[in-house]
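Please check this:
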Amino acid sequence: MAGLSLRPLAGIPEIGDGDDLAAVIAAALAPTPAAGLVVAIAHTVVSKAEGAIVELATVRPEERARALAAEQGKDPRLIQVVLDQSVELLRAERGVLICRTRQGFVCANAGVDVSNAGGADRAIVLPVDPDRSARELRARLGELTGAPPPAVMITDSFGRAWRHGQVDVAIGLAGLAPLDDWRGRTDADGVGLQATWLAVADAAAAAADLARAKDSREPVVAIEGLERFVSGEDGPGAGALLRAAAEDLFL
């Protein structure tokens, strides 16, 4: 088992709508990315490049948003953005709305974020299709570098049932195996494994978040040491990590 090496990429400027994010990353990776590299990108910069920003001044809260805002002590405009990004509101309690997003994620506030939004009274929403975003970024990196492109992972911070704190997880993925299935294999003592199914992408995303600070403006982290999980094909994406609603024991 090889060790991991993680480093945040320096020199990433503020990203705006329509910016060529892949070109910015390629420049930071120059001269040529190492084979088997994984690039973990905070979703906020992907969302900014794709124009997934909502100016709260333009939002007109509907009755449901106003009622939830009064109940939860929140800005009704922000609640409306959360509802607009959700297909289902699962729970509203203690100022947090647990939602199922359009992309199929179950998370707090439908992934809507006001931190690092590039200004006050702005909200960042998730990319419409994070797996597609990852694939497009990877293809563009290949074009720009003229080399086999690194795997691309788009990350966001999620909470966990029964545990305090948040960790980054993969919400978009291209070129990295999301899971490593050990079921049916044996451990070091020859005991059969029945449930061991490693979330490779989520573990890598969480590690990448430790390599940067939330206020450091370092949204991109290069990861070395995961070569055995990197492939030339884009693969199934982060969607493979989502548990079907019928299998969810907590909802």
